[in-house]
Amino acid sequence: MYVNTRPEMPEGVKTLPARYYTDPAHFQLEMERIHFDMWLCAGRTEQLSAPGRYFLRQVGNASVVVLAGEDGRVSAFHNVCRHRGTRLCNADEGQLPGRIQCPYHAWTYGLDGRLVSAPHMEKVAGFAEADYPLQPVATAIWDGHVFINLSDRPRPYSEHLAALPAKFEPWGMADLRLVEHRVYELKANWKLIIQNYSECLHCPIVHPLLHRQSHYMSGDNEPPQPTYLGGRMDLREGVKTLTMDGQTTRAYLPGLGPDDQRHVYYYAILPNLLLNLHPDYMLTFTMWPRAVDRTDVICEWHFHPDQIARSDFDPQDAIEFWDLTNRQDWELSQFAQEGISSRGYRPGPYSNREELLRGLDRFVLERTGAGAASRTPSPLRPQP
Amino acid sequence: MYVNTRPEMPEGVKTLPARYYTDPAHFQLEMERIHFDMWLCAGRTEQLSAPGRYFLRQVGNASVVVLAGEDGRVSAFHNVCRHRGTRLCNADEGQLPGRIQCPYHAWTYGLDGRLVSAPHMEKVAGFAEADYPLQPVATAIWDGHVFINLSDRPRPYSEHLAALPAKFEPWGMADLRLVEHRVYELKANWKLIIQNYSECLHCPIVHPLLHRQSHYMSGDNEPPQPTYLGGRMDLREGVKTLTMDGQTTRAYLPGLGPDDQRHVYYYAILPNLLLNLHPDYMLTFTMWPRAVDRTDVICEWHFHPDQIARSDFDPQDAIEFWDLTNRQDWELSQFAQEGISSRGYRPGPYSNREELLRGLDRFVLERTGAGAASRTPSPLRPQP
Amino acid sequence: MYVNTRPEMPEGVKTLPARYYTDPAHFQLEMERIHFDMWLCAGRTEQLSAPGRYFLRQVGNASVVVLAGEDGRVSAFHNVCRHRGTRLCNADEGQLPGRIQCPYHAWTYGLDGRLVSAPHMEKVAGFAEADYPLQPVATAIWDGHVFINLSDRPRPYSEHLAALPAKFEPWGMADLRLVEHRVYELKANWKLIIQNYSECLHCPIVHPLLHRQSHYMSGDNEPPQPTYLGGRMDLREGVKTLTMDGQTTRAYLPGLGPDDQRHVYYYAILPNLLLNLHPDYMLTFTMWPRAVDRTDVICEWHFHPDQIARSDFDPQDAIEFWDLTNRQDWELSQFAQEGISSRGYRPGPYSNREELLRGLDRFVLERTGAGAASRTPSPLRPQP
Ligand code: FES
Ligand code: FES
Ligand code: FES
Questions:
Q1: How far is CA A206 from CA A200, A319, B82, in A?
Q2: In a designed cystine with C246, which of A11, A318, C120, C239 is the match (CB 3.0 to 4.6 A)?
Q3: Average predicted confidence (pLDDT) for chain C
Q4: Which residues of A touch B206 (CB under 8 A)?
């Protein structure tokens, strides 16, 4: 039924050396060159539904507060007081009373980050409130997704998304509402999670339920893009969406045409968002690297408000399906971390159906400046 | 009522760069230049009330046994056997039977540290017991406080205390007795605890109970001294001492004049003792750095024996008051550690009421040889 | 009764500097030069009693699978898939179904390590299964003990064992069967465990029960050998073996002559096997360094099948005796680790009854290339 029509993988293309997955110094380099430079998906606009609503995100050693301003617009700041550096907000999310007040000496900032009150600074030569605003973090919105960028000179957001806004317009993502939120703490490098996400060769072995509903060879990928890697898979005949039994009473998302009703889209928007678009719901994963071998993953299920409003709405079939599939994937990603950390690891060859993984490796090599030389290490020499 | 009469803070005086609070290598440097060089308060003579009584203290990687010798005099030694290096005493405190015997092969030392028995060493060429005493640690006593010094060439103890013995003679600290002992494990650098201790700008916000009894602007500091930083605050009218309600049935300490009965003294004796003198009791904190971001604090409440002997003696009002206040301070110190460890931290400006903090920074900069250049880092450049 | 007839210890022979027990970099050097270079005892052939039986061993960062092949012969491989490096076997021990299949994408290896199936690799230029076998780990068998060697060019196994096979032939070790298995997690460097094992000066103090059955001065050591350190001790008159009361209803091992029935042999076969041979049972310890200050010890009790078959067989007297003795030794080894890690540690003098410890130090110095210069550090200079 399905044949492997993808182009051949050239000779000598191998997985990366172990240090890319085990060396804390390389991890720091990746954070600087990738996570502190690129746009990261932080959450959803519905979490910032009124002035003063906020949530925190930890990116490497950066604590960031993402909030809705007086005018309801989203902005973000480093969550650090300009007086003696105290962390300002200390709950994961909440409602600010129109200002941000430091818990230590009550320096007070507006929701726009301006320092509006700094008690007892009147006898400091040359002090001016205007010189000590909260340090800003760039933000952008795409169809309900909130992105942040910690770079001093963020690249244009439109370059980051490229063709995606047009492509995914039919799903009406901005209209969807968060129904379930689960956090997974993985003992694996963040890249292994994207790798796992980017091929379905493992599906018949690891995810028999998924494979029963969507054939693992049905995948059709876009060529790797500079900022995202993705493709789509077919739903098998008679399968309406991905749930425990492939059925659902939920309606399709209103904007979808017949072709999109028969597919699930899987996009890794580098470096931290995995976006699964089903005919009737959206699943998002945001990945937060904690160490070279640890990553927290926030997984959220989003549905259309018309369906949520129905008296018979029950999202459990989709939640259970993905929670089960996630756990299967996390276990494998952790086995991969263990093996790559082991003395016996040597870079191995990719198949032609792992072209997105090769795309990820190239992205990492270009970003971390390790160059082409280390891309195809000799299988004969031990890798550190 | 109270006005800010302290001198203006010059322009450009800022808090230290983040590495002073986050870099393990800088922490080691501080330990070498500060904690392994200076006099540290280890405990009280009443804990060493009979020959052979001992307690242990851990200073960085040094385990020290502090003990009362045969003649009752206090001395201290490295808690390490001279044979194969085994830790000698392994309980936090106790009673030695007139000697220190290694648990491994029974090398035995007198309470004066001399090696008195080394079984089976008779067939070792050139071996002499006299060559293997326990390695001594210098000790000194001040009014009941036991100090130790791990330097090979300790600076004179009198220089360390300077004017303090005369100043605090009226409190008769040697006569006081330990009534309560609490240990707090903080996730904060030791300097942040001293900083928190050295200003009361945070008091109205964080310690409403304290502020109700002692106005936060009433503080009057000595100029920073080379080895200590301190000052005093007024008790408000009608307030007798710092307790939950500001009242007490305890008598004032017998040596105090009327002025000292109306004040609480707060002295940070660098680098590890915080000394609170109230009209009717003494509170001591000794701080034991465990890592760049961890410090154990031992807090002890000491009262006059005449009051302890009273049938209605109840120290709970003072214990509760300070335990509550401590917990408020520890939380803030931990928020400060978190914020300073965050990517968004930049050195910030001190107010003119934080002159003791500036004194602490100068002390650290002088000791760690980082020099004046890094004292006023540019607000425009990111700090590592 | 027993006199110290061993040769005198020359002047100036001291224990090693602290860094040999505390420096993670030195630990890595030891792992490279010692544990990754030498033969390590991994277990017993009876654990590999049928084709496909396997167990895992972790040597530093190397995960190794030791298994019985199709022909029942023992072999070992790095437990890492040649595709994307996933850890292959993830249970500590078990039964393989005639092949090793990667849990990720089902690359499948024979029990001889050959890659027999690599799905979806047909469109990879130049790919050949023959190029991707599991990476082999050398194995050898000695009288029921399974050894592994992770070196690319293992030294001959016969050199490693030297005179031991002939010496211990009478005990018939291959015939013995494992009855009890206990794992101890020690906070101590692996060398301290061998040191503790290699002298009995501590026995009268620490092991009164052992000393009651076997006089601590009765030890008679071989001169230190390049790959092992050992000796034997006498059982006291009336004592039959080492148990809680020195008695047993078990018969002597069938091959033992009268002299060997009156002794217990203690051999440290470097770097990871401690072998205790009693008249009626064998005790083995294999040591697995986890960090410079952590070692896991697997302790196993082995008895003769004729005794195990008896209706009144009860190994508890031997298990309890050694479990008690082990715990006493582990505590001391941990106190030694603590003391040597302490700032006050200085290398100390060995007695003439610690010649095996000096032999271990020389072994380590030769292997780690630290040279003779650091062998007798000056007692006057602090050691890092
Ligand atoms: S640290 Fe924030 S107000 Fe002082
Ligand atoms: S280590 Fe202390 S007596 Fe041997
Ligand atoms: S990693 Fe083992 S088959 Fe892919």
A1: 10, 18, 59
A2: C239
A3: 95
A4: 103-104
Nearest to B106 among C12, C205, C338 (CB): C205
Could you tell me the distance, in angstroms and rounded to a whole number, from the CA of residue C229 to the centre of ligand 2? Answer: 21
Looking at chain C, the whole-number percentage of residues with pLDDT higher than 90 is 94
C346–B85: do the CB atoms touch at under 8 Å? yes
Lowest mean pLDDT among C45-54, C59-68, C170-179, C211-220: C211-220
Could you tell me which residues are beta bridge partners of residue C289? C295
Closest CB to C86 among A18, A339, A353: A339
Q: Which two tokens stand for residue B264?
A: 């609480």
> Given pLDDT bands bounded at 50, 70 and 90, which one contains residue B381?
very low
- Out of B36, B84, B125, the one facing C8 most closely (by C-beta) is B125
Distance in angstroms (rounded) separating the CA atoms of residues C31 and C37: 8
* pTM summary value: 0.94
CATH 3.40.30.10, domain A19-35+163-368, yes or no: no
**Cα–Cα distance for residue pair B90/B98, rounded to 1 Å:** 17
Using a 6 Å cutoff on CB, does residue B84 contact ligand 2?
yes
Ligand 2 center from residue B81 Cα (angstroms) = 6
Q: Tell me the C-alpha distance between C3 and C352, whole Å.
A: 12
C92 touches chain A (CB under 8 A): no
Which residues are paired to A283 by β-bridges?
A276, A301
Dihedral pair phi/psi, residue A375, rounded to 5°: -75, -30
Q: Residue B232's CB: how many other CB atoms inside 10 A?
A: 19
Residues of chain B with CATH 3.90.380.10: 19-35+163-368
Give the residues of chain A that fall short of pLDDT 50. Answer: 371-384
Cβ-contact C335, B90 below 8 angstroms: yes
Predicted confidence (pLDDT) per residue in B327-378, tens digit:
999 999 999 999 999 999 999 999 999 999 999 999 999 999 854 333 343 3
Sign of CA dihedral B160, B20, B36, B81: positive
Q: Is the pLDDT of residue B70 over 80?
A: yes
Q: How far away, in angstroms, is A345 Cα from ligand 3 center?
A: 12
Angle at Cα C99 formed by Cα C98 and Cα C101, nearest 5°? 145
Question: Domain spanning B40-154: which superfamily?
Answer: Rieske [2Fe-2S] iron-sulphur domain (2.102.10.10)
Give the pLDDT score at A375: 36
B24: left (phi over 0), alpha (psi -120 to 50) or beta: alpha
Contact call for B104 and C202, based on CB within 8 A: yes
List alpha helices for chain B, DSSP H: 19-22, 24-30, 157-161, 164-168, 190-197, 203-206, 208-213, 305-308, 316-340, 355-368
Say if ligand 2 is within 6 A of residue B107 CB.
yes
B343 touches chain A (CB under 8 A): yes
Atom of ligand 3 nearest to the CA of C85: 1
Residues of chain A in contact with residue C125, where contact means CB-CB under 8 angstroms, are: 8-11
Chain C interface test: which of A187, A292, A345, A358 (most C C-beta within 10 Å): A345
**Helix, strand, or coil (residue A371):** coil
Which tokens hold the place of C220? 């008679």
Asked if A252 contacts A258 with a C-beta cutoff of 8 angstroms, the reply is no
For the CA of A107, the closest atom of ligand 1 is 3
Give the three-state DSSP class for B296.
strand
Ligand 2 pocket, B118 CB below 6 A? Answer: no
